[in-house]
TrEMBL record:
Key word Oxidoreductase present: yes
Gfo/Idh/MocA-like oxidoreductase N-terminal domain: residues covered: 43-164
GO molecular-function terms, A-Z: nucleotide binding; oxidoreductase activity
Entries under InterPro entries matching the protein: Gfo/Idh/MocA-like_OxRdtase_N, GFO_IDH_MocA-like_dom, NAD(P)-bd_dom_sf
Domain of life the protein comes from: Eukaryota
Source species of the chain: Atta colombica
Protein name: Putative oxidoreductase yrbE
Length: 483
């Protein structure tokens, strides 16, 4: 037999391989299996708000042996009894916001979790800190920079942690990607790209009090990029459009394209939408001279259906943020408790939170550049309201990377890279190794209208040189029917 010479000794006589460092769930399983305990006091908490995020935090608290819930504060009194009965919270005191002073006066309360509407955050945070409680707050801490600064100054004054819940930082995929970027696996980053298409479309009632797409959604993606790179951008440009009339009517946007420039030369792109009909599309990509790291979407299961000649059908991606980022929520919760017990420093620094707030308000500065470029990020706005983005590089170390995506209210079409072959290698615990993509344009070519492309390319070059959005007008002769 051709492979007989590769036979090895029994796995029982060899050292047992260690589980991957990133297997967070297996580590928690071992803790429960071995009944591992540490000498630390139980953290007694109060939860403000049992809505979208508050429900997730409530479940995490109930399943944690490290905390005890003393109070739940929520103004919808009609659901108090249902919450108490569903979660068996017979020993928890329910209060309205008008009664919350009882929480701050109770010396037994160690920490306060804030998951109420944005406009209420600052007052709760300040009162909790004044009462010398540790604070875990959903973003944003406050609606403006001066108020946010005041909250952090108060936290410093009383010596208590103020933690802003940017849970994407604690997602295992993004955490792994960040560590590998900092180890230099792709070299100096030339381009970082983020796709964030939300699902499901949130109610207008929520959107009206959300603070708008820039402060409700975009702040997460800005924070993620800044965290991965470890630097703040010095230039930003934005295109935004409201394709959904009801969202336009409340003065907000549903589609946003953002470009960043960083002092080190790195470019960044964010593709953001309020309404993804095919699930919670969350991707992150980092490109450099040594290669690319890509955190892709996760799916409900790994089943593939081969049906007649209709192609291969796989499971959908996760439907929404509570499922996609559940591990991130759990890990940030554990991290906050570690911060309270002085086991670690907070991963979310005040300077990062303040910088993200500034960037979400940022205007387009004047930019001037000389010479040619090897990395380009382009935003395009079309008369129909469509927004386009182009990520361009002269130098790919891993092959001819040519991808195209079209996103709309009915779904997304994606033309992915083509590979030499379809063989997958599963080698120990090193992951799945597939074939490279095609090496060059000689293997994969596309065509188009050269006149139209030239005009757009010239406008893009001028935009990069002068730092302004360029307006394009077209004649009938320039736009043939076969465009």
């Amino acid at each position: 037999m051709a492979t007989a010479k590769f036979k090895e000794t029994s796995p029982y006589v060899k050292p047992k391989p260690a589980p991957p460092e990133d297997d967070y769930l297996y580590k928690k399983y071992l803790e429960h299996l071995t009944l591992k305990t540490e000498k630390e006091p139980i953290v007694k908490v109060a939860l403000f708000g049992v809505g979208h995020a508050g429900t997730i935090h409530l479940e995490t608290m109930i399943t944690s042996r490290r905390v005890q819930i003393l109070y739940i504060i929520d103004d919808v009194k009609s659901k108090w009894q249902s919450i108490r009965k569903y979660w068996h919270l017979d020993n928890v005191t329910f209060l309205s916001s008008k009664q919350c002073d009882k929480v701050f006066k109770d010396s037994n309360v160690d920490a306060v979790f804030v998951a109420t509407p944005t406009i209420t955050h600052k007052d709760i945070v300040i009162k909790a800190l004044e009462a010398k409680k540790a604070v875990f707050c959903e973003k944003p801490i406050a609606e403006d920079r001066p108020s946010t600064v005041k909250c952090y100054e108060m936290a410093k004054k009383v010596g208590k942690p103020l933690f802003t819940a940017f849970n994407r930082r604690f997602d295992p995929s993004y955490w792994n990607l960040k560590q590998r970027v900092h180890k230099g696996e792709v070299g100096h980053v030339h381009m970082i790209k983020r796709v964030a298409h939300d699902s499901p479309l949130l109610s207008l009632e929520y959107l009206k009090v959300s603070g708008g797409i820039f402060h409700d959604c975009l702040v997460h993606d800005i924070d993620l990029i800044v965290w991965v790179l470890g630097e703040y951008p010095d230039k930003v440009s934005v295109l935004a459009h409201a394709n959904i009339p009801e969202i336009k009517a409340i003065g907000d946007f549903d589609t946003v394209a953002v470009n960043f420039h960083f002092p080190s030369g790195t470019l960044g792109m964010i593709d953001l939408s309020r309404n993804s009909p095919y699930g919670y599309d969350q991707r992150l990509e980092v490109f450099g001279p040594k290669g690319m790291l890509q955190a892709d979407n996760r799916q409900l299961n790994s089943v593939h259906l081969y049906n007649e000649l209709q192609g291969i059908i796989t499971a959908p991606i996760w439907y929404s943020w509570p499922s996609r980022f559940m591990n991130g929520y759990k890990r940030e919760f554990e991290h906050f408790l570690d911060v309270i017990h002085d086991k670690t420093e907070s991963e979310v620094k005040s300077k990062d939170i303040l910088a993200v707030s500034v960037l979400a308000h940022a205007n387009i500065p004047e930019i001037k550049a000389i010479g040619d470029f090897d990395t380009v990020a382009v935003n395009l706005h079309f008369p129909s309201g469509t927004v386009g983005m182009i990520d361009l590089s002269r130098n790919s170390s891993y092959g001819y990377d040519q991808r195209l995506e079209a996103f709309g209210p009915k779904g997304m079409l994606q033309a992915a890279n083509e590979q030499f072959h379809s063989v997958h290698a599963y080698n120990k615990l090193q992951g799945i190794i597939t074939a490279p993509i095609f090496y060059s344009f000689a293997s994969r070519q596309v065509e188009g209208n050269p006149g139209v492309k030239s005009k757009i390319a010239t406008a893009c070059e001028k935009s990069a040189l002068v730092g302004k959005i360029m307006e394009l007008t077209w004649t009938k002769d320039e736009l043939p029917d076969n465009l």
